[in-house]
Amino acid sequence: MYDLYGLGKRPLRLHRAKTCTRSTSRSTRNSPLVYQTDQSPRVCRGCLQMLRRKLANRKLAAHAAAASQPTPSTPDSEARQVFNNINLSPLSTESWFSPKTCGSVLIVLLLHLTGLYLFASGFLLTRLELENRSICAPFAFPSLSSPTPPNTTTPSCWHPKRFDRAVLIIIDALRYDFTIYNETLSSQGSTSTSNSSIPYYLNRLPIFQQTLQAQPHHALSLRARADPPTTTLQRIKAITTGTLPTFVDAGSNFFGQTVGEDNLLSQLLSQNKKITFMGDDTWINMFPNSLNESHPYPSFDVWDLHTVDNGVLEHLYPTLQKNSTEWDFLIAHFLGVDHAGHRYGPDHPAMGDKLTQMNGMLERVFEMAPEDAVVVVMGDHGMDPKGDHGGDSENEVNAGMFIYSKRPLVDVDGEDDGGVKNLLERSYALDVGSDEPFVYLDGLRTLPQIDLVPTLALLLGLPVPFGNLGTVIPDLFLGGGRSGMRNLLEVARLNALQIHTYLVEYSKQRMAASLALGNLNELFESAEKSCEALAVETADVETLREAYLRYLKFTRRALVTARQIWARFDLPLIVMGSVVLILGMLSIAVWAGVYLSRGEDPSYVPSFVGAGIGAILGAIGFVNYFAAQFEAVDQSGLKWYHEVLFGGALGLMIPFLATAIYHFTQLARTSPLRQSLRSPSLWLSTLLLTLHYLKPASDSFTIHEDSITVYIIQIFGLFNLVRSFRLRDDKIRDQLVLYSLAFMMLTRISQISTICREEQHPYCVPTFNASPTTSVAAPEVILALWVMIAAVRGAGRKLLKGADNAEGAGFVGPSVFVPLALVIAAGYWTLDFVDNLGPSATENSVLSSLSAGTVKVYWAKFGYTFGAITPLYLWASDPNCTSLEIVEVKYMDGTTGKRLCVNGVSNAVGAGWFVFLMGVYAVLVMYAKPMGGVMLGVGFLQVMCLCEMVHLWRDRARFAEVVEKKGRKKALPVELLAKVGKGRVEEGDEKSVEEAEKGVLEVGLTFSYLAVLALLAHRYYFATGHQATLSTIQWDVGLIGMLKVNWITSPLMVALNTFASHIFFALAAPLMVLWKRPVLSNTEARFEVEARWVLVAYLAVVGAGGSVAAVFAGHFRRHLMVWRVFAPRFLFGGVEILVVDFVVFVGGVGALWICRKGFNVFLIKLREKGVLE
Ligand SMILES: [Zn+2]
Ligand SMILES: [Zn+2]
Fold first, then answer.
1. What is the pLDDT of residues 404-453, one digit of tens each?
2. Are 463 and 157 contacting, i.e. CB atoms less than 8 angstroms apart?
3. How far is residue 205's CA from residue 221's CA, in Å, rounded to a whole number?
4. How many angstroms does the Cα of residue 109 sit away from the middle of ligand 2?
5. Which residues pair with 165 in a beta bridge?
6. Which residues are close to ligand 2, an ion, with C-beta < 5 A?
7. Which tens digit of pLDDT belongs to each residue from 303-338?
8. Which of 449, 640, 1068, 1165 counts the most CB atoms within 10 A of its CB?
9. What 8-state DSSP symbol labels residue 638?
């Protein structure tokens, strides 16, 4: 890493490694030839003597010639003289953190952030969670009726209660048409010989029809419309809080499932009511502290039709028989119907059986229902014709809802003026700003599902949850005549007041929403005015009804407006984000290709000027003009800052892209780039990346991404294997074949570890943990971890030794500190394993007196400081993997002399980076869990294969090719090198050598290795126990080394666990250009640039993947699987981009730093040896 050739105008290849007997590195293979002329007894490495002679022979510089004069000085001073002639000054003059050095990564980061932000603000439904609670106190307005009549049992809050208790029976995925009974079909079925003409899901729940006919005053059947995404979690949230769904709730619990907003359950709790729950365990995660009694059953296995239902049935009837002191609110959540749908689809005998079972259950429940209870039977959502759900098709949003009570519930007959029918017809005619069916759909009673929330709350005498947007179901409050209407008016007013309070509070927090919500105020105030004006006690039914309808108009308008604000995709923003992402992806790829082969940084000034101009154009509304061409721009949440960002991003890209294209046309004239464009490697990388990027284009590809990635990686291995056989050089060929095979075998091994996503059942068997139901590793995995750390350490050391870099940091790191760190990490997981065996297993053992759990906590605390930090710190203080030696040599003429030898020059920079990567591995193993540590080790071994493969292809095979192309079919690189070594290079040879050196960094080749690194990052993301779903995040690692959550280190550790593979493979990218790259004239500067641009190239590869995933998610925003598959995939793609950007930013700075630091340390060593003054 020193400027040996500072004087020479022409870079020449020199021998670089230490010994001549090894055969791994290129130079050493050729060394015997090179050194034959010297006939030195102990063959040499980077010898200055050689340099001196060559410089003299070729008369490249006058003072070099002077240095070659035989002077009667000591060899030491001779060496010193040479070094003094070469301008060796520390490289630390330029700051390693400057616009020039960080500009490329900074621009990429800005583009990614802007594109992702614009896209996400159009795509992700966001809503601020308010923590306010409704309180059980009278509203600050005069009550319409006389004060609440004194209640005998418990007092009511806002309105006198009608029921003391409630039973909520959720039959998951109970589609509306499952609940209706079609007589014609039934008779048809009974007359025909077979039932096959009727779908299995129809007429299986006659209980509803029977009850409606037998007790019309006691039952109400409704079609409840769920807001998409129609997933169970979102629906449970909606029917307890009354809010609209969001994908990302911008609240206190960003990724957790716990419901933070005011809800029915928390209102029940605050009134000291008792809640009993049984069924789908999703509830347990959502309401961890609200359930007094719970019988949860796992919802994970969608192929199991009976476990949950049988469990619920076991507890349901005994609970119903208990008296009123034991429970006030009973939740029973059945999953069988949903699972039958997922497994077989709705039209299947299993569905028929399941529904029949449910019918029997309901018969008993209606029979056993306590007198003082209201029973609600409902589906949380429907299902599509295949039995799945999640989207917004009619079949998915229409769920059944049936309300029953032993007390009279509804006034169906109705007097002519006060009846429900009349009221509904009137409300149907209201203009609520939407053509959504709020009252009837196809003539059938229809309403939003969230209407249940205020209805249940007020029926039970509870406050309505603070954020509710539903409207009370009028049928349940409208008794006969004037008093009934008055009751309904009062309830509607409470409902409107609650919604108004919520909207006012929300507008205070989110200014953006205040504008849209502002005009609702007028509606509310006009309703209030008309209500205050009328004399409630005396007004006739018609006046009361008028007042009610005004409130209804307000509450419905509020829901419609809120939906527009929160639950809409914003197409202009999605398009703008996609444009920035896609253009950015293309630009970054072109930049990386161009500047990587130029080995030079461009100027960033025009880009930032362009960004400024673009931002100004955006600010004055230029973007809006174009956005207006899209549909529904007036409904868009497009704001001035979005336009500024969009304009700025385009302005940033265009000048940079223009200069890159200019350089590209220039470069295209020179041979290396032309060769690159024609090279098979470029086609290989194109193929690999196209396959990689197309994965998010289909839901089933995304679901099976983990195994698809393996096949794409194997294409790479196979390509290298086949191509190797065509090489003429036996030794290179054998090595390449060996490495390709090893690489493919390791890829196969990575498939051992799997974690399954729900949709992969039953073809997927999770092996990451000991069993699907634990998060504990199997004992053989612990053993494998120990084997793996030994293997990584051994292989790493062998690789470094082979390149003569087992010196300095190259010795201390892999031999002492990295192994120690690895032992600490593996030791932690072993202790964790022992701890998980439970107390009985550690009895009578050494650990019996001190629990393994305590030991592991302190062990981990020690691990932080030592295991993770020390190796990286030691590396940072001296990343130099070379050593200096003065050896005695015997010349041909019999004289002896001394020579300065530098060991490991040929891989000085690459080795330093490799040692760093070992340190990174040691850190990641600590947080990756045992199986993750093993898998990352497999990945590391693959990186080692890749290092050697890229080196062999780049240096040796290329070199041979160039020589062959020059028409010297028989000239082997060995011969040519020998000539160089002897200093007898002819004109033609020189050109070949030069060209070989220039062609060293073939862009196509480099890109194919970067592509496979990106693929490996994906592969090992899955192998370390993750999937593109939130449920696979391994939260438990956040507690390593501590007894309770620390809000700084815990998220960091979870991030290190989740993105371990992305971090590791991004940091491995520089090795693809640094490994075994010879130090040539001015190369340390070139290395810096290349190391940085190869990282940008890696960003281009990774960023393109995330960008494409985003665009596909935008394209499929109406797809059934958007919330289950595409949106999480986009989220992970986006976070992956940002994580890799960050890692690369740090890594890019690190690349610079290691080049300079290593060089400066080397200078110090020279001084120590007395070679330099
Ligand atoms: Zn569900
Ligand atoms: Zn389901």
1. 999 888 876 655 455 777 888 888 888 887 777 788 888 888 999 999 99
2. yes
3. 13
4. 39
5. 373
6. 338
7. 788 989 999 999 999 999 988 889 999 999 999 999
8. 1068
9. -
Using an 8 Å Cβ cutoff, are 900 and 79 in contact? yes
Q: Quick one: pLDDT band at residue 238, thresholds 50, 70, 90?
A: very high
List pLDDT tens digits, range 998-1051. Answer: 444 567 778 889 999 999 999 999 999 888 876 677 777 877 777 666 777 888
Q: Tell if the pTM clears 0.70, that is, is over it.
A: no
Buried-state track 604-626, b at ≥16 Cβ within 10 A, e below 16? bebbbebbebbbebbeeeebbee
Question: Which residues, listed in sequence order, are joined to residue 900 by a DSSP beta bridge?
Answer: 886
Whose CA is closest to 134, among 500, 548, 547, 555? 500
Query: Counting ligands in written order, which one lies closest to the CA of residue 175?
Result: 1
pLDDT tens string 696-729 = 888 888 888 888 899 999 999 999 899 888 777 7
What is the SS3 assignment for 971? coil
Ligand nearest to the CA of 342: 2
Greatest mean pLDDT among 146-155, 205-214, 899-908 lies in 205-214
Q: Residue 369's closest CA among 312, 324, 308, 309? A: 324
CA of 440 to the centre of ligand 2 (A): 27
Q: What are phi and psi of 171, to 5 degrees?
A: -100, 105
**Could you give phi then psi for residue 725, rounded to 5 degrees?**
-65, -20
**Backbone angles phi and psi of 377, in degrees to 5:** -110, 125
Rounded to 5°, angle at Cα 871 from 865 and 875: 135
Cα(1135) to centroid(ligand 1), Å: 28
Q: Burial of 924 by CB count in 10 Å (0-12 exposed, 13-18 middle, 19+ buried)?
A: buried
Which range has the worst mean pLDDT, 98-102, 399-403, 644-648?
98-102
Centroid of ligand 1 to alpha carbon of 561 (angstroms)? 26
Ligand with an atom nearest the CA of residue 302: 2
The CA 172 to ligand 2 mean position distance, Å, reads: 7
Which residues, including other chains, have CB under 8 Å from residue 843's CB and lie 6 or more apart? none
Both tokens assigned to 506: 């929300």
- Classified as helix, coil or strand, 1032 is helix
CA of 302 to the centre of ligand 1 (A): 11
Nearest ligand, CA 387:
2
Preceding omega of 839 cis (within 30 degrees of 0): no
Over residues 682-703, the mean pLDDT reads 84
Residue 178 Cα to ligand 2 middle (Å): 16
Backbone region of residue 603 per phi and psi (left: phi > 0; alpha: psi in -120 to 50; beta: other values) = beta
Residue 446 is predicted with a pLDDT of 93
Which residue in this structure is represented by tokens 């790829």? 589
- The label of the residue with tokens 């126990």 reads 1025
Closest listed ligand to the CA of 232: 1
